[in-house]
Amino acid sequence: MKDLIAMIGDPWAITDDGFAAVAAAVEALSGADLPDGPAALSAENDRPLPGTRTAEFRDGTAIIPVRGPLFARGNWLTRYLGFGDYQTIAQDFRTAHRDPGVKAVILDVDSPGGMVTGVAELAALIHQARGKGKPIIAFAGGMMASAAYWLGSAADTVVAAETALVGSIGVRVDVQDTSERDARSGVKRLTVVSRQTPNKGADMGSDEGRNQVQATVDALATVFIETVARHRGTTADTVADGYGKGGVMVARDAKTAGMIDRIGTFESVAGDLSAANTPAGWSGITAGHGGTTTPHEEPMTTIEVSAITADYIAANHPDIAKKFRDDGAAQGAKAESERIRKIDALALPGCDGIAATAKADPSMTVEAFAVAQAEHLKAKKATALDRFTTDDQGFTPPAADAGKPDAGAAGGDDATVKALIASIANA
């Protein structure tokens, strides 16, 4: 939670509404009593495309979601809030692009943008994968704004729904001025900056400090604009003057400006790629189109994709079936070893029993153990407090020694405290 609060002051490439949503979520959760890792989030570990966290797979096309405000790195809390992160998108994109079964990639975008940190690296990863045999399509269903457009523009083709909003090119930094509130509360903030680095820690309350931050924001925006120009095959001046100047455009206007390539629906994009991903005779299998013949070759034996079951593979390709079983067993053993290692690392004193139970139950995730452990400690603390409250009703402080200071003196107080501690420890 502290990491999210700290990130609010970082540079962002995001719309006003998008930033307001992030700030509101952080503010709403800042005082909430959240668990360390809700077990309910384990459902997010479903991986329709093997080896990825979020990607789906359809007819040879990997579909990677780019949703919500985007952070540099994600954790259970960003996923809980529905926020995306560059690290996960990058990992899923690499896996999909390297997978020989994936013939194309769709970036399914609906995002107001996100942090500047990390977006350039992800955009470069996408751009460098262009022209290598796997079409990369960025589709905007709702919004492809700011950092999300930075990423989308890196694709081979950008497609948007008729009602999609595209653009918001630019960078922002928001700083909350709490000086008046702090003054009323008697709070003073003192900062000492090394003499050799006078520009470190700009004072946003001064013109000089604001100008310094403004220069940084302008420099980041220049990188943004020049990168989009390179992605779209145009000039930086065209992007700066003709791509909305920080505003968003409806898809039709965005197409006229050259920000997108065409207007369409997600299903039309997926359908086009599905047809293109099923070349005649590919791997000896066709997706319901019947047999195919390669020139100068005999017709290939084809089967329906739906007929390729585990039993079919075991009967017709026992070597492949064995490889699947061996790989699955090895991956399962590795995953179980890692699960036990993480539980041992998280186990706290006094929780040996619950840790042992968790390790013995393969279905218990690390997140579920963390929550169970926290609840166990909370219950144990409450039980100890109840016993102390009950025992205190009949507690009699030890009598003062006639030859020593009075019971009200420091020595008597020490004896009383020690007796109280002993009663709690033995409870």
Describe the 3D structure.
With 427 residues, the protein is α/β, with parallel strands linked by helices. Helices cover 47% and strands 12% of the residues. It has helices spanning 2-7, 16-29, 76-80, 86-98, 119-128, 147-152, 179-185, 207-232, 236-242, 251-257, 266-276, 310-316, 318-346, 352-360, 366-392, 410-425; strands spanning 12-14, 56-58, 61-67, 70-71, 84-85, 104-111, 113-115, 136-145, 157-160, 165-167, 248-250, 262-263. Helix 4 (86-98) runs parallel beside helix 5 (119-128) and helix 8 (207-232) crosses helix 9 (236-242).
* Relevant CATH superfamily of the largest domain: 2-enoyl-CoA Hydratase, Chain A, domain 1
Assembly annotation? single chain
Contiguous low-pLDDT stretches (5 residues minimum) are 34-47, 279-302, 402-411, 420-427
Overall mean pLDDT score? 77
**What value does the Rg take, in angstroms?**
30 Å
The largest β sheet comes out as: 8 strands, mixed
Strand content: 5-15%
Question: In the CATH hierarchy, what is the class of the largest domain?
Answer: Alpha Beta
Sequence of secondary-structure elements: HEHEEEHEHEEHEHEEHHHEHEHHHHHH
- The 3D shape can be described as flat
Total DSSP helices: 16
